[in-house]
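re: ur question from earlier - yeah i can do the single chain one, its not a big deal. heres the input i used so u can compare w yours
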Amino acid sequence: MELGRAGLAWAAALLLAALGAQAAAAGDFDPYRILGVGRSSSQADIKKAYKRLAREWHPDKNKDPGAEDKFIQISKAYEILSNEEKRANFDRYGDAGESQGYSPHQHRQFHHFHEGFYFDESFFHFPFNSERRDTSDEKYLLHFSHYINEIVPDSFKKPYLIKITSDWCFSCIHIEPVWKEVAQELEALGAGIGVVHAGYERRLAHHLGAHSTPSLLGLINGKITFFHNAVVRENLRQFMENLLPGNLIEKITDKNYVRFLSNWKKENKPHVLLFDHMPVVPLLYKLTAFAYRDYLSFGYVYVGLRGTEELSRQYNINVYTPTMMVFKEHIDRPADVVQAREMKKQLIDDFLSQNKFLTVARLTSQRLFQELCPVKKSHRQRKHCVVLLTGEGDKFAAAYDAFLTFAVANTKDTLKFVHIYNDRQPEFADTLLMDEEKYKGKSSVVILERRNNAGKVVYKALEEAWQGSKEDNFILLDLLDQLRTDPSLLSLETVLADLNDELAPMFLIRWLYSMLDYISDCWDSLFHSNWREMMPLLSLLFSALFILFGTVIVQAFSDSSDTRDSPPSEKEENAAKTEKNDATFGKESNRMPKKGFVEVTELTDINYNSNLVRLRPGHMNVVLILSNSTKTMLLQKFALEVYTFTGSSSLHFSFLSLDKHREWLEYLLEFAQDAAPIPNQYDKHFLERDYTGYVLALNGHKKYFCLFKPHRSGDEGGTLALCEEYNSLVPVEARGKSSCSPGSRSIKNKLHKLSFWMERLLEGSLQRFYIPSWPALD
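and the output i got, formated as C-alpha cells:
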C-alpha cells in the first residue's frame, strides 16, 4: 500500500510539474513585449510594429537559427493584438481565450496529446519530433509568400515536386528514405524540390489542397497535380516525366533532320541536337528542354538506331560520348559543340545560355527586343543594337546574307545584330526611317541604343540603303569604330512603340488549349480527388439535374392535364381571346397615352437645366430638331409617331430650333460615331447642312444620347396612310393648309419609322453616345 501511494504521489508530482511548466511557458508569452508596443497602443502602431519585425525576422531574409521561432512568435502576437476580442481577453485574464500562448520552447519539449495534456517527448524517446528527423528537408521548407511570389513563377521554367508533411505522422517517416534519395536525384537534374509543414503552414497546405499527410504533388506552369501511386523511386521519376509536355523534344533521324534544322527561320530559334546511345530521352534533357523552350528547339538522336548513320557521319559524331550541337543560320555546320562522358546540368546550362539566340535574330516581340537590346545601365555597360530593316522574299535575300556575314565577322559583347520585317512591324520601321520614300522597297541599317523601358532610344541610320556591297561594309564598320570612342554619334532621339508578338498563337487556339486543360483537370479530379474537393462540383451537378428534371416533370403534368380537358367551344374561344387581349392591354397600359394630345415644349435657355442637365435619373428627353420653315409639318408628324409612347412618365418630348442652336447640335453630333461628318467653320456649306428631322434621346443624368437620323427614301406607302389617320383625328378647322399636301410629304417622311426607333429606345438596344458634359445651349 505504501509503495502504491508513493507511486501515485510521484505521478501526481510529475503531472503537476508538467502543467506548471506549461503554465509558465504560456505566462512568458506577452504579445505587447514581443511587438515592442504599449498596452494603450493603437491598431496603426501595432500594425506598423508588426510589419517592421516581420521584415526583420522573416526566415527567408534572416539566417539566424532562431529566426523562424521568432517569426512565429511575432505572427502569434499580432494575431492576438489585431483582434479586439482576443486583445481584451488577454488584458483581462492574461490569455487570449484559446491556446495562443505558443512558444518555440514549448513546441520542442511538449506535444499535444488528447485534451490539455502534454508529455515530455524525450521521456519516451519517440522519433516523431522534427528535430530528431533528418534535417535535409530544412532547405526545402516553403512559406506561403515564398510559394506565391517565387515558386509559382519559377514553375514556368522547371517543375517542382512538393511534399506535405507534419509531426506525429507514421507514413511520413516511412517514405523518408525514398523521398530523400529522389529529391537529391531530381534536384541534380534541374527539378525543383519543396517541403510544406502542415503544422506551421496550414494556409499554404490548404491552398495546395492537401488535406492529409503525407501528400506528394507536382507543380508545373502554376498547375498542381497530385501523386497517387506507391512512393517508390521509379514511380516518382515517372511522375516527374509525366508532368512535362510531350512535344518538347523531337526524335531525329536521317529522314527528318534537314527539315528540323531548316525551321530556324520560321521559329526564329537556334536548334539543338543531342546525340546519345540511350534509347529513351534522358530526364535531364527533358528538363533542360522545358527550361529553354522559349529560346531553343530540341531534337534527340539515338545513335544506336538504324537510320541515323548518315547524320552521325556528316557531323563526325563519337557514338560512345554524348554530344550536344547548336545550329543557327547554317544547317551544314554547328555553331557550337560540347562533348562529355557525363552531361551535367551546370555544363549544359553554361553551354545553352551562350547560344540562346540566332546570330542575327529577328525581332518578333517586345520581350525579345528587351533581351537582345537591354537598357543602358552605365557608361561602361553600353550595348548597341545594329538593326537591319528589310523585307521578306528573294528580293531582300542578298542584303540579308551580306548583313549576316558582316555580323559573324564583327560579333562582340557590346554589339547585337538583329533584323526586322518592315511589313510585320510597320510602326517600328516608320519611326526609325524618317525618309520612307528613300528606303521604299530597299533594306536599311540603323544603329540604336535603348535608354529606358518606356521606349526611348537614340539612333543613327546609314545615309544610303543597305545593298551589302564592300562600300556598305566599310561605312558600317567605320561607324561602329567611331561609336566606341564617341557615343554622341547617335544624335537622333525617338520613342518606339512596343513590338507586335508575331509568333503568338491565335485566340481560338489559346481558347482551345485552355478548354483541354480544364477538361483534363476535371477528369483527373473525378477519379483522384477526395470527397471534400468533389463536393462543390457534385453539388452543382445535382442542382442542375434537379432543375432540369423538375421542369420536365412539371411540364409533363401540365400537358397531360390540358389534354384531359375537353376542347373549348367557339364561344369560349372568343371569350378566351378577349381575356388575352385584355391582359396584353393591361401589361402595356403603363405606356398607353393618358391624354388626347402630345405635350411638346421648346428647349430654350430658360428650361435647359430642368429639362436636360438636372433631369431625374431614369428619365429621358426626346428632342426633335426642326427649323422655322418645317416646324408645323414636323411637329404634326412627330406627334403622330410618338403619341403611343406618351403614357410613359419617364419620357419627355421637346423640340430644338436649328436656326438658333445649330452650334450646340454640331458639338453633340461630333460624339456620334456613325453620324454624318461635321464640317468646320470655314466650310462654305456649313450653314447649308440640313439636320431637320434628327431626333435625339437625351439622358441628362448619365450623359449619353441616342440618335435617330431621318429616313430619306420614298414614301413607301406610309405617308398617305398617316395623312389619312391625321385627317381623321384632327378637326378640319384645326388642320394646316399644307398639312398633307404633296409638298409636305417629303418633309414628313423624314420621321418615317420613328415609332420603331422609339420601341428600340425603350428596349435599351440602341447605340449610346457618351459625352463628358452637357454644353451650354447658348
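The radius of gyration is 41 Å. not sure if urs matches, ping me
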